[in-house]
Amino acid sequence: MAAWETISTFVRLAALGALAGLTACADHSIVHKRPVSSASRPARPPVMPSSQSFRMCTARLDAAQVRYSPLPNEDKGGGCAIIDTIRLLDIGTPTANLGAMTCPLASTFAGWVRYAVRPAARLYLGSEVVRIDTFGTYACRDVRGSGGTVAGKRSEHARANAVDIAAFVLADGRRISLLNDWNMTGPTAQFLRRIRESACKRFPTVLSPDYNAAHRDHFHFDMGGKGGYCR
Fold it and tell me: With bands split at pLDDT 50, 70 and 90, how would you rate the model's confidence at 56?
């Protein structure tokens, strides 16, 4: 083979090799430029309560040996939100249906159960309270009046700032409910009115069956308003 033919062959092979290298690089760069799908992105951690007032409140719960779990802040939209809330785990008396509660509401409720409900049950009913039944705490809804909800006026429940209490179960098996026992006479009625009076000294707003038909079956306690509203 002539020298020029050898050189020509070498040049062609070198050119093909360079082209292959460029093609490989191009493919490699394309792979790395593909957008990452949202499903593969790591989830953002929830925003947990961190305000000074929240820390001070949970310190009071710790001092009272109340067990609780902080909940992430959530703006639900439409005037509904769960901000600086906790879930009560143990206040010394099992309590049903408790969800998110603002820390001040939870702290006041735990104190009411410990220092008002339990002693009053022993005094008036001669038995221990072994469970409290509630209708819950957070609910994205409007205020309930006698004729139904009041459109455009959000309840304190919409901010996890209210709790509704329906009944008390005693160690001897009795169940004292607002629906069945509020209008009774004797120790049962005295017990319910005594714990309402105590609640009125603790919660800014207290509503009972005396308020309207919408509250015939529960106490409503909330931390809203200017205080002193006890019906």
Answer: very high
